[in-house]
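Run log // design_07
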């Protein structure tokens, strides 16, 4: 059984020359390794990609009827706002 941490497992990625040059330049400027730069970039961007994927999944659920929706008319009726212009400060706090 290996005692190596998951962080030490290599992962190969082919980069276009211009992107590799940018990684190299940033690594040199910050005195960090290429791996550190790429790892940090992935950690930052993966959250955005996951967020985008959750949106796509939610839209798919809505379109396929697996997620319930409420019309604007229903919301207005529920809060007694039908046909009335509403200022944001006039809305009740959501619980």
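design_07 sequence
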């Amino acid at each position: 059984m290996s005692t190596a941490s998951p962080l030490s497992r290599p992962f190969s990625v082919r980069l276009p020359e211009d992107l590799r040059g940018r990684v190299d330049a940033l690594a040199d400027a910050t005195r960090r390794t290429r791996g550190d730069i790429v790892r940090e970039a992935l950690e930052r961007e993966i959250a955005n990609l996951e967020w985008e994927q959750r949106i796509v999944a939610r839209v798919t659920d809505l379109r396929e009827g697996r997620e319930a929706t409420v019309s604007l008319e229903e919301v207005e009726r529920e809060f007694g706002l039908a046909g009335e212009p509403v200022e944001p400060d006039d809305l009740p706090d959501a619980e």
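Residues 34-63 form the longest helix (30 residues).
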